[in-house]
């Protein structure tokens, strides 16, 4: 049985481990943390990622764990809608939902599906030999036919494989995230755009609101009290923003500067090593596609190396996965798509950073006009992202089409 070592037990790494196990690989996932403690609060799983999860047998379980909202869109700080649509429209257009859930919920589900026998916690990777597939750790070595580096935006594996690449750069904004109990009834999923500032709020299962906010900030700025800082910046915006900020516990607020690639990598593999998720294509969060693209990566990778094995009779799994085999096909399949999504996300980030009153007014007028001319403007703008389907998608017994 071919052996794969996955570095990192985030959403991308766990998804890759599941996909490879289902494809017949002996998988070991290495994670330096002593326990899985997902960074972040909530996330959206869009139709493209749900289709990928369907191939892992998890799509319906994620749909069942998620909160599906009716109306979603973009508002002004005074509450007026600039652009909006509904989940029902999205489902009709893309034959699936856009679902919201806690990041920890998804990580727990993925870890459970992977199996405790494949997961090694508290293991620090100290080096990877791309030519031989040997992974060195603080506890010894692991030999692999395939190494999957899902070690995040600061990936040490990526730096070793592509030492000349500039790496992620600061996007010019800092981001806050938090979770707040909610007993106020239905809540539309919204982003509110102001002058250089964004505030998003989404109701999750269990009557909890996940919120996030971004604002222009010098890189590395330090704030004494993050809740007071948020109230100072957003406390005068429309409800429920002030109420959410007043209710959140300060220790539940997470803040980090936003970094992303300005320059794509030339490939997502070297030798026997594949890069996946934020290790391969870190992007700003503006399209909500970071986790979704990592899940796509996982199922495409498993398919590509599986195809490589099928066509490498007598050559062995390492040859099938490595240079000229399945990993070359993986890079070819993922590089153009993820680079385009990175660029689009960065463009949206730039639009949210506008502070000049004239520029902001023009931005708002354009969004409002576009919505009046087409009620499906938001959906059409995301068509190329959301209509993606995984390779050899099996419709039987999976996804909404099979349930109809």
UniProtKB/TrEMBL annotation:
This is 2-polyprenyl-6-methoxyphenol hydroxylase-like FAD-dependent oxidoreductase. Keywords: Monooxygenase, Oxidoreductase. It holds the Pfam family FAD_binding_3. Residues 4-161, 267-344 form the FAD-binding domain.
